[in-house]
Amino acid sequence: MILIADSGSTKADWLLINKDSEKVAEFHTKGLNPNFHDYDFVLAELNANFDLNKYSDDVTEVYFYAAGASTEEMQTRLLHPFKQYFTNADIKIGHDLDAAVYATCEVGEPSIACILGTGSNSAYYDGKNVIDDIPALGYILGDEGSGTFFGKSLLSSYFYKKMPEHLRKKMDERYKLSKDEVFENVYMKPNANVYLASFSRFLSDNKDENFITDLMERGLLIFMDLHVCRYEDFRDIKTNFIGSISFFFEDILRDVAQRRGVNIDKVIKKPIYHLTKYHTQQIIDNDNY
């Protein structure tokens, strides 16, 4: 059986298919990012999932695409615990940008693939190869337009008292925030990026507020300028998006894109089904070769 997974920093979606490309099972785990998670954490997370344990010995191929797995070194950090866990499988660790391209781009058609989830990134697809020559700088230096980015913007607006009072009251009622608590989660505990991105739910629930709309527009414009408009032919090709931020704020995203002359085609919340379709086609093509 073939196991395919797409992992952001917050969560990972897994889909298991048989040799006839039929769905066997679907499950979810925490996101596994080699920048934040070591061998012991990854192996423990795999072992903790009952659904994975049921099928682990029967899996013959694993395709795992992860945020942070952009280099061979980062991919190896995931490969070792995966080999320990999936003892009968050939394992391929890839970057989540590859997954974004495979899930949204048409073979042979140059296009741009973007991720707007917990983190953010973009890649240029020339019709054959994935080219990610605009670096992603992570949640401290970059991640423009991501859940983490907007979480930081929201919290700073709250503590600096730059948001409307009725929104501050809503945040007080919902989160009962204190500066000490936020500092502990951001500066002392692991997975600060995931914590910050969790506040994007508040943004989504209040997206009709002018303050929230303006905040989202500013952040998405920064992403467009840094990660889409720097590709030479961005006006002439399609740009596709995956991730929760792009999905839940699609109307604002498309408006911002139009201002910059960006032609958005697909906006997908979770790429796992489209990614599985890609691998299913690969199986068919190989069988027919």
Short summary of the structure?
The chain is of the alpha/beta class and 289 residues long. Helices cover 48% and strands 20% of the residues. It folds into 2 domains: 118 residues, Nucleotidyltransferase, domain 5; 161 residues, Nucleotidyltransferase, domain 5 (2-Layer Sandwich), CATH 3.30.420.
Structure in words:
The chain is α/β, with parallel strands linked by helices and 289 residues long. It folds into two domains: 2-101 and 271-288, 2-Layer Sandwich (Nucleotidyltransferase, domain 5), CATH 3.30.420; 108-268, 2-Layer Sandwich (Nucleotidyltransferase, domain 5). It has 14 helices and ten strands. The strands form two sheets. The chain has a five-stranded mixed beta sheet with strand order 3-2-1-4-5, sandwiched between helices. Strands 8-7-6-9-10 form a five-stranded mixed beta sheet, with helices on both faces. The longest helix has 18 residues, at 210-227.
Question: Which key phrases capture this entry?
Answer:
five-stranded mixed sheet; Nucleotidyltransferase, domain 5; single chain; 48% helix; alpha/beta; 2 domains
Please provide the ordered H/E string of secondary-structure elements: EEEHHEHEHEEEHHHHHHHEHHEH
Q: Enumerate how many helices there are, as a single number.
A: 14
Uncertain segments are: none
Question: Which homologous superfamily in CATH is the superfamily of the largest domain?
Answer: ATPase, nucleotide binding domain
The total of beta strands comes to 10
How would you describe the shape?
globular
Q: Please, how many domains?
A: 2
Task: Report the sheet-strand fraction.
Answer: 15-25%
CATH class of the largest domain: Alpha Beta
Query: How many strands, which pairing sense, and closed or not: the largest β-sheet?
Result: 5 strands, mixed
CATH architecture of the largest domain: 2-Layer Sandwich
Strand arrangement, largest sheet? Answer: 3-2-1-4-5
Mean pLDDT: 90
Q: Which class of secondary structure composition applies to the elements?
A: alpha/beta
